[in-house]
């Protein structure tokens, strides 16, 4: 059983490192703030969570140490990173940062005028 857990730990650490690397390339290569933000918030969040879970399993298996700080960190990142990514994208859109010329659709275009019309009546 110890060998299987060791393989799972190694797999989680490798997946986490790979997802963090992909997120880094996404931030460097993608054309606008919205796609970069998506790469950073999703890829890095899943990468960090995988690494923390692998670390938790390692310390629990090897030393019998239940580290509640790692569990709390996983929960904290799982809750806050998507919210922060959404708020950054929303702030960029509201401040007038444009989409890439390769973008096909702007779902929020015209929504402000619609909300202003409905809120005044």
Automatic annotation (TrEMBL):
Record's subcellular location: Membrane
Chain intervals with Basic and acidic residues compositional bias: 106-121
Keyword terms: Antiport, Membrane, Transmembrane, Transmembrane helix, Transport
Family: Belongs to the CPA3 antiporters (TC 2.A.63) subunit G family.
Pfam families, A to Z: PhaG_MnhG_YufB (PF03334)
Superkingdom to which the source organism belongs: Bacteria
Cited NCBIfam families: CPA3_mnhG_phaG, PRK12674.1-2
Species the sequence originates in: Rossellomorea aquimaris
Protein name: Na+/H+ antiporter subunit G
TM segment ranges: 6-28, 40-60, 66-89
This protein's record includes keyword S-adenosyl-L-methionine: no
A single MF term (Gene Ontology): sodium:proton antiporter activity
Membrane topology: Multi-pass membrane protein
Chain residue ranges for the region called Disordered: 102-121
GO CC, one annotated term: membrane
